[in-house]
């Protein structure tokens, strides 16, 4: 394989050259040029650089504290999400746990909602007037009713809210583990704990690295959980970035903050790539067999794991149940926490669905999101494969460039596209892109590139290279190998990524507000119009209704993607447990790019 | 093999093709859009506004259709709409913008994105509320300090914003903002800071003025995301806070509280929502006709009746909700030098966010 590591060997393949040329154009036209333009305008307003932004920021106590909090949260989340995430994956897919299917459904609830409504859901339960808190206060007199706030509360909520990537990708990688290696280890006398630690977890590493980066990023971009639960002492930097992005005279501060977060993300990425490099993350037996569920032999451990698993189940499902309930209540009841069954009506749904715009924004968003999701994954499948196979400086440069959308807030990306393509530009064949339907699609595709690339690369890394070598020895050409050997192996992950991309774009506001064609407005703008402004009574009720409606769409999406893939796979290899197919309507995590921890981000507008 | 190559290349280049085509299929399948080409919007007027919530957008579109205007409303927050209009100035997409207040419009005007126009109803409005050239006033909104009148008697209530942090009984009983991004918050500070104008002070404000800001943040109860001020008043969390005049009646009913408002001796800041023609519109004549129609006494009166607003058009005031008109008649407007405020607001917001918010 050493031949693959030089630029020359890479350049000797015509296919690689073609892909490289297209990729270079795309990166130059849509990732580099627009962002260079907007950053230049921001940092060099009159053609000369001023250190103003840095000076202002570093002398602001609030900014520094908020920035520190964001980093603290990012580091803490990278650990806690992995702990909880690996635990729920093992409980649902590795250990023999009673009722693991029910548990799966509960844990999968994060697939279908997130953001401010999720944070609100937790507050309904553990907040000052929350159900659990009232109960506890009665049991433990003298308890502080405001116990669930600050760093601790934010960390707990965000940990449980962002295990989606574990449930999808780590579980997927786990299913790919060859059971024979586990059996062999056990025959040699390894305890279940040793098997887990020495065999199972190491093989999950590439995926764990990738989801750790995502958790880190989620922490850095945290927005709604700190706003709802952080209190005075734990506010993060994202709200400030958003305020400054909106103010032309302070945009340099927003850009500088975004760049600081972006650089941190890139450092994290570099560290992870280094750690990942050179490892072998697949089993080497020649005839692999399906993973079988393991018993926990120690009875005490078994009871403890069951107890924790069901406790987590309760933590995951309670907020969803309450949110669905509250979506039928009136806005005043939602905010004052006075819920009674008699007050539940369909009024909220009637109001939202009988607007003049009707279903049209839903259709527009579904079409745009689907196109963008498919283009991003389809386009990057081969690119991710090349970047995984060829480890040289050109490949690394491409890889880092493709992460640019993680650095800047989406509003800045959108503004960059406008100022770059509001006049005929040779980069796009002399076309003017503003005011067209395609510019929003371009933006949607670009914002999804980093996440798509990370997850695809991780899934290529866990593919056993002996398949590929065998095919090559028998004379298969590169593309044939890719199409017949690799593609089928990474397809489940690719489908999951497509579904996640689709779901996260459905309610996008930050990009669409600047780029949408006036006659073809997506859902995010409608949600904003109906939920924003003062958080009056209808606005808050509408937020809940839209959350539930989005849960339905994304649930259906996941079912279509997974339900079918699962069925097909089951048919092919009968004995295998249908992997993700047992979830009826699991769905739609929102993968988290910086500042995007929010399902209903538009509604979070800082007051 | 060739097939796959084409596939991969096509996927990556799909956006390019669509971009060159210009008239790519609209990703919407409903009837209305099919007539529109990707590059423009046919004979439909594109109207940007931040005033489309609570059914106002739908109402306006329907009324305009009756009057023979085909309009498409693009709703966005005040700051978003402003940034969008400025970013698009080289190749504008909007034809008309309305609902933004004078601070936002003066920013857009400064960037050269507005076209001068003299509406047919210019004589029926107080010119001083707009700029008398490019943007024209439609609706007035008072930015008020309101308090729970069931709990606090009128003579025990604060007399001015400054009482909130100088009198012990109000400390921690008022809600303070947690972000300066909204128009309402900016107008509250325009009202407070204007009183401390000092050309030798930092950003035109005396040290005493900045001390007021510091005290405001130090002694207030931070707003809670997704919980309305009225909900907090109802639950006894706080007793007072900032509120635009138009929402009060409705919220009182929803949350079953009674709120009275403070009338400081210097007066209260007014936000005036405006309408303007976008520079470079390809449907200038039609857009001008729309402005003439929308700002007319008749349409403004209907709008005011429907949404409890306070129209600026004198002809419309007679038909607006009498309670609203009376309230504004008894209101003293704070004298604010808007040029001064507009020049400095960006820097003030930045300073407040960085130094005083905790």
From TrEMBL, chain A:
Pfam annotation, one family: BPD_transp_1
TM helices/strands, residue ranges: 12-33, 71-95, 102-125, 145-170, 207-225, 253-272, 303-329, 362-388, 400-421, 427-447, 485-506, 544-562
Domain of life (superkingdom): Bacteria
CDD domains in alphabetical order: TM_PBP2
Mode of membrane association: Multi-pass membrane protein
UniProt keyword list: Cell inner membrane, Cell membrane, Membrane, Transmembrane, Transmembrane helix, Transport
Region (Disordered): 569-607
Residue ranges of domain ABC transmembrane type-1 in the record: 67-272, 362-562
Subcellular location: Cell inner membrane; Cell membrane
Homology family: Belongs to the binding-protein-dependent transport system permease family.
Entry protein name: Iron ABC transporter permease
Annotated organism of origin: Arthrobacter liuii
Automatic annotation (TrEMBL), chain B:
Protein name per Swiss-Prot or TrEMBL: Iron ABC transporter substrate-binding protein
Keywords: Signal
Keyword flag Methyltransferase: no
Signal peptide (UniProt feature, chain positions): 1-23
Family matches, as PROSITE patterns: PROKAR_LIPOPROTEIN
Keyword Signal in record: yes
InterPro entries: SBP
SUPFAM superfamilies: Periplasmic binding protein-like II
Family annotation (Pfam families): SBP_bac_8
